[in-house]
User: Fold L-seryl-tRNA(Sec) selenium transferase from Malaciobacter marinus.
Amino acid sequence: MDLLKSIPKVDKFIKNKTFENYSIKLITKIAKEQINQLREDILSNKTNNFNEEQLIENTINEYEKITKPSLQNLINATGIIVHTNLGRSLISQESFDKVKKVASSYNNLEYDLQAGKRGERYSHIVKALQNLTACEDAIVVNNNASAVFLILNTFSKNKETVVSRGELVEIGGSFRVPEVMTQSGAILKEIGTTNKTHKKDYENAINENTSILMKVHKSNYSIEGFTSEVELKDIIEVANKNNVIDYFDMGSGHMIDLPYNLDSKEPSILKIMENNPSLLSFSGDKLLGSVQAGVIIGKKELIEKIKKNQLLRMLRVDKITLCLLEEHLNSYLKDELNNIPTLKMLHTSIDELKKRATYVKNSLEDICKCEVINTQTLIGGGTTPNKKIPSIAITIEYKDYKPNKIEKLLRENGVISRIENEKVLFDFRSIQECELDEIIAIVRKVFK
Assistant:
């Protein structure tokens, strides 16, 4: 009982000078919990002593644990450039600095400076997209899944949307095209087979209730062997003849030709727009190399109808997204592609990657066994499925540690690596040049 009596009261405990620079509200909450737990431990004989200094330390430790930001900087050593789990495309410091003043000030997000009245937030990216893609109009929502849903809900609610069975995809997070169509109110009209769909399948499917002929990018798989699919230009031709909308859910859209013949089966947005499609949507944070967004471009009359859909307000993007997206679109316009880290990583030469890998290897070989190797990696993020690109990596071995143990130690210190052929790899395709010394310091710390 004497030990219980020695426990301080909460109101007195929180007045300790140690807590002067902390939020008293949160300290009070934590102190109550710590003191209640201490009382329970004493009553259940889990402890037979009490130290107020230890109670103060425990309270502060819990405070720091609660208030520590959950999102942290990481070094992506997996080689996957557009890594969904690691935040997809990077934003360059230069781009962020350019938009920081606008984002931290009042601005003309929805204000027309010439007319002196309310404006439209989407207008800030229309000019750049028109000049880049020759589209009539454009709109931006918070991701491409939203773009798909919004288009279907606007034009195909209680009407049929025709889709090839080979394109009824499921992407990450159980996002399934058939289920999205159901939620949007669209009626799915499946055509063709899993491996083969022909132009006549689209033609035969059209009836008085058909609204859209939809093509879907196979973002995370490919169908090989005895296959055929209908090119978008043929779908557009059928749609125009029958006065229905053609729509291509491009998924990960890229604005320029890709290296390593990656766009042999996936043409760029610019090439697709040569066919004058009705509507096209793509992601902002994949191969475009910008922020998370769903970009819709196409015919002005159709974009205007989308703008009138009440759902748009729920899916719209904020000023920071628009600022960064406009900055990156202008980088394309001005051919300043080094301002887009995703493209910069994708185009970095093997010789340059080997140079960086050798530098790291030479700096670490006194504490662990390293070897520079040729490897291959995926771009990731649902882009160019099953298409690998060449890269350079170093293997990391230390004493008799198993690969899983090395990977875990590195991960706990902010380096995300991959295991291949029973060895831990640092793949330099996704490691930034400015991170080389940091990764060296972390490895030396882990294996000190």
